[in-house]
Amino acid sequence: DGGITQSPKYLFRKEGQNVTLSCEQNLNHDAMYWYRQDPGQGLRLIYYSQIVNDFQKGDIAEGYSVSREKKESFPLTVTSAQKNPTAFYLCASSIAGRRNTEAFFGQGTRLTVV
Amino acid sequence: AQRVTQPEKLLSVFKGAPVELKCNYSYSGSPELFWYVQYSRQRLQLLLRHISRESIKGFTADLNKGETSFHLKKPFAQEEDSAMYYCALGWGGATNKLIFGTGTLLAVQP
């Protein structure tokens, strides 16, 4: 089954703990993205990467970190510095360097801070 | 600054009625506009993009640069059209970043 896979589907975290969300794709895409989805706010860009070993901050990067050591993988770490981490997180990938390109999304991870 | 506005959180129509989901954008460059759809328990997926000028599942969307709009239309709604619809603006040239609107939930009543 080709595509983009996020794990886990549900994640619970205690306040003060870091947690890492996994995102893997087998679409051979260079570009990968992390979005946060909150009710009534649409999707907001956290981080994006156009190529291995390179990534840039999006609109709401504070309290988050990422790595891009492999083309297929773009894990997101939600740190204890993130003030309001409870949200639905979506990972996406696309072909890089081309306009009007379709983004492919994972099923999402719902993170709840308890 | 780049911005996408979807004024309606919820649009409820009866089966067979026309549908128009509104989307307005703010962008100084040449816009790339998309409609993404999320059906219940499914992942977010592309419905259509303005550059293709295509009709998908009976839906069309025309880019109006004068009104900075990209409204999604369908002449006769079906129950299976019920879903969350997001308008998105691509910017940053080749970086393919997407800015999303807040989404409109379309509910088609039988």
Write the layout of secondary structure elements.
The complex is a heterodimer of chains A (114) and B (110).
Chain A: E1 4-7, E2 10-13, E3 19-25, E4 31-38, E5 42-51, E6 54-57, E7 64-66, E8 76-78, E9 87-94, E10 104-105, E11 109-113
Parallel strand pairs in A: 2-11
Antiparallel strand pairs in A: 1-3, 3-8, 4-5, 4-9, 5-6, 7-8, 9-10, 9-11
Chain B: E1 3-5, E2 10-14, E3 19-21, E4 24-26, E5 32-38, E6 45-49, E7 60-61, E8 72-74, E9 83-91, E10 97-100, E11 104-109
Parallel strand pairs in B: 2-11
Antiparallel strand pairs in B: 1-4, 3-8, 5-6, 5-9, 7-8, 9-10, 9-11
Q: How are helices and strands ordered from N to C of chain A?
A: EEEEEEEEEEE
The backbone outline of chain A, from C-alpha atoms, is globular
Radius of gyration of chain B: 13 Å
> How does the helix and strand content of chain B classify structurally?
mainly beta
Ends apart, CA distance between termini of chain A: 34 Å
Beta-strand segment tally of chain B = 11
Number of helices of chain B: 0
Low-pLDDT stretches of chain A = none
Largest sheet of chain A: 7 strands, mixed
How many helices of chain A? The count is 0
Quaternary organisation of the protein chains:
heterodimer
Strand content of chain B: over 45%
| Apparent shape of chain B | globular
The rounded Rg of chain A comes to 13 Å
The most extensive contact between chains is: A-B, 28 and 25 residues
Calculate the terminal CA-CA distance of chain B, rounded to whole Å: 41 Å
Task: Name the average pLDDT of chain A.
Answer: 93
Q: How helical, in percent, are the residues of chain A?
A: under 10%
Major sheet of chain B, described briefly? 6 strands, mixed
Overall pLDDT of chain B: 92
